[in-house]
Amino acid sequence: MTAALDVLVVGAGPTGLALAAQLRAHGGDFRIVDRSLDRVRESRALAIQPRTLEALAGFGVTDELVKRGNPAVQLRMHLPGRVVQMALFSGELTDTPYSFLLFLSQAETESVLAECLEAEGVTVERGTELLRLERQGGYVTCRLRRRQDGREETVRARYVVGCDGAHSTVRSEAGIDFLGSAYPQTFLLADLEADGLEPGVAHTFMTDAGMLFFFPLGKPATWRMLAMRPPGSPGAEVTLGLMQEIVDRYADEELRLRDPVWMTDFRLHRRGATHYRSGPFFLAGDAAHIHSPAGAQGMNTGIQDALNLGWKLALVCRGAAPQELLETYEAERAPVGRRVLRFTDRAFTIATSRNPVLRLARVQLAPRIAPLALRASGLRNRVFRTVSELDIHYRRSPVSVGSRAFRNGPRAGDRLPDLPHGLQSRTAGPGCHLLLTGPHHLWPDQRIAPVICGREDLISVHRLGAESPWPDVAQGLVRPDGYLGYVARGLQLEGLHAYLNRWLPS
Ligand SMILES: Cc1cc2nc3c(=O)[nH]c(=O)nc-3n(C[C@H](O)[C@H](O)[C@H](O)COP(=O)(O)OP(=O)(O)OC[C@H]3O[C@@H](n4cnc5c(N)ncnc54)[C@H](O)[C@@H]3O)c2cc1C
């Protein structure tokens, strides 16, 4: 048997690919396997949130994602007799370089992530399925099978991360429950061409009978169509004819569907893992939470799970951080997963309920009130920050320490805002970043060096001086995933030193 690996990543969907990128950037020793022989070619998730674009920028992939996607999508609501148009984010969020929802098919997102890994020399071992896991001593014995020749292999790993989707083998081998239920409705989905729709805009047709959506995809087809299967057609095969029938029923306008690339029907579930970790096993992405696509949160939440976990695993395996750091993964990400389940469940219930009051609210009131309500900048800001995932924070995490150091600025556990613009890109490289505000001369090397000593390869120092948006003299340590771990006001570095000794002992 070969020497033990630090980490086996099971699954190379968006979550596994992002985890591999983060492990690689932080010197992790890992393998990544996926049972399918090829990457996903289907569109599936179709939008990337601003926070995900920020978080992926450190790998140098965000520009490519933006180049391939559509960042300027407006939402057009077609109501009986009239049309209401609304912007989606569009420049409202001033503390991020990505103030837009990027429409891009999941296949393209995975392709960009896979190319990034390839350039880093990481091989995704396709056609390799995880069969079984067994804990033995301090290791996990993993049984793998190659699909092409049926050959089996046993690998020993210190940790196994299940990025293996809703039917996760890792989850069931780890004995972690996945609680929740399926929604009763069935949905129809197609990537196709549609004549008669204005391009580059997301369209919603809201009628008493139900809702119909067209999202601009670009690739592999111009449009993603999504609708609830109407009563009376249960089980009927998904054909272009059925999709056209739905369009004729829900849309006032003359729309012609053609050239479908992919059509399917599916049921949605709302389920969450009872734990994100059990001993050496971790879950991330759909293996940990599945929900309705309302709000485009699924893939985004998975990628951010991965970016939270990757650096922690790599540093613990390298001996640069204590085991307790791994406990903060569930502490930080499980509340985010639960919040996404609640939020998407509410949105889904309002969008699909047959309850007469909710139907009236959906078709008559919401389309009139929503654009007006969203003109109130406070409410609009709150909604956008929630959906964009920019408001996720880890303030209650054991690894978030410190006072309110920056007036009107971030607290320990908050993401580092991009203020001034360019601050995020300066701190996007691997490792931690120590931000020092106040005049440069207050932070001579001889003051910093003893604190950083022995961790020089892990911590980059940035003296912001006049560039700082905050007037105070303060210190902030930015974690590798872009969140502030430690903040303090003033020149005293004892607190920072103690924090580093606790979480990054030299
Ligand atoms: C029809 C459809 C439409 C969707 N639409 C949207 C949307 O509009 N918006 C949105 O946000 N989300 C959407 N989603 C959900 C989105 O696709 C998922 O949230 C996302 O793919 C999760 O990524 P993941 O990497 O966690 O899991 P997955 O993408 O499921 O990847 C899991 C990987 O693990 C591999 N694997 C599984 N078991 C094993 C094993 N035993 N050994 C080795 N490999 C294994 C699989 O082959 C797969 O490649 C949609 C999903 C579907 C099915």
UniProtKB/TrEMBL annotation:
Q: Show the InterPro entries listed in the entry.
A: FAD-bd, FAD/NAD-bd_sf, RIFMO-like
Q: Name one GO molecular function term.
A: monooxygenase activity
Entry-linked SUPFAM superfamilies: FAD/NAD(P)-binding domain
Report the cofactors.
Answer: FAD
FAD-binding domain boundaries: 5-344
Ordered alphabetically, the record's keywords are: FAD, Flavoprotein, Monooxygenase, Oxidoreductase
This protein's source sits in the domain of life called: Bacteria
Pfam families reported for this sequence: FAD_binding_3 (PF01494)
Protein name (record):
FAD-dependent monooxygenase
> Which organism's genome codes for this protein?
Streptomyces vulcanius
